[in-house]
Each structure stands twice: as C-alpha cells, then as structure tokens.
Amino acid sequence: MSNYKHILLAADYSLHNDYVAEKAKSLAEHYQAKLSIIHVLDNIAMPDTNYGAVIPLNEDSNYDLLEAEKNKLRELGNRLGVDEDNQWLVWGVPKEEIVEIATQQQIDLIVVGSHGRHGLALLLGSTVNSILHHTPCDVLAVRLLDK
Ligand code: AMP
C-alpha cells in the first residue's frame, strides 16, 4: 500500500471532533503526510462581503460570527500543528465543499467522523455517505459509537 501524502481532516466541532482530529494527526505523523483541515460554514448566513466560497483566514471581517469561526479553526490548527495555509474555512454545503477542496488540493485521504452534528439518525452520517460516493480518494470514517 502506498503512503498517504496529503490528509484532509473534516472538522465539524461536534462532541467527537477532538477524537477524530487526533486520529487524523496520528495518521499524518505515521505516513509523514501533510495535514490540512476544512471546516464548512453551513449554519451562518454570510454577510455582504467579497468572499467567495473560500474565506481567507488572514483577512479582517467586521462580522463577529465569522471572526469566531476563524479563531476556532486557528485554535484547532495550532493544536494539530497545521499552518494557516492548510486551514480551509469555506462557506456552503459540507459534503460538496469537502469534495471540492479535496480535489483541488490533491488529497489522498479524507478523515471524517462516522456521524457529526446530525447525530445517529443515520449510522453513517449523510456527509460521509456523500463524500464516499463523490471523491476518488480514500475516506476514513472514524467510528463514533456512544453518542
Ligand atoms: P454528519 O453527516 O453531520 O453526521 O457528519 C459526519 C462527519 O462529516 C463529521 O464527523 C465531520 O467529519 C464531517 N462534517 C460534517 N459537517 C461538517 C462541516 N460543516 N465541516 C466540516 N466537516 C463536516
């Protein structure tokens, strides 16, 4: 099996986010791969800005919610040792934007939780299901059993 070179963590900040993040980090260490993080904003209305789907972390915005989201991503990135160039804050539909960035960045492994904020209604979250069907790269769904 070839080594992974670029791993993408899909972070939703749900209860199990840190567990999934640690898995992604140790896989990146194991394979000596680059680690990137994506968080997709799907629950805030975007203010009237010039941003497209990708929101630059290093640009000031006057919108508190957006700044809070940037800070959350920076904190996670700092904890995992991922620099800002590899932190993706994107606005849109998670399952679509994750596949989009994975394709653009030539990701070879996407790490997700088996379910996230949408709970256990589906054993395999809808986001994961859709990513599996729309990306050519490997997808690791970290099994989350207890919540
Ligand atoms: P769900 O489909 O909500 O059960 O989520 C399953 C997994 O998809 C989560 O554990 C995350 O890894 C990923 N995911 C869901 N929503 C987002 C999001 N807004 N941004 C980044 N990753 C997400």
Main sheet summary? 5 strands, parallel
Order of SSEs: EHEHEHEHE
Structural class, by secondary structure, is alpha/beta
CATH C-level label = Alpha Beta
Could you describe the 3D structure shown?
The chain is an alpha/beta fold and 147 residues long. It has a single domain, classed as Rossmann fold, CATH 3.40.50.620. The chain has helices at residues 17-31, 64-80, 94-104, 126-134, and strands at 6-10, 34-41, 87-91, 109-113, 138-142. The longest helix has 17 residues, at 64-80. Adenosine monophosphate binds at residues 10-12, 20, 38-40, 42, 94, 112-113, 115-118, 125-128.
Please give the structural blueprint.
Elements: E1 6-10, H1 17-31, E2 34-41, H2 64-80, E3 87-91, H3 94-104, E4 109-113, H4 126-134, E5 138-142
Helix pairs in contact: 3-4
Bound molecules: adenosine monophosphate (AMP).
Can you describe this structure in just a few lines?
This protein has helices at residues 17-31, 64-80, 94-104, 126-134, and strands at 6-10, 34-41, 87-91, 109-113, 138-142. It is an alpha/beta fold.
Q: Which keywords apply here?
A:
147 residues, binds adenosine monophosphate, Rossmann fold, alpha/beta, five-stranded parallel sheet, 35% helix
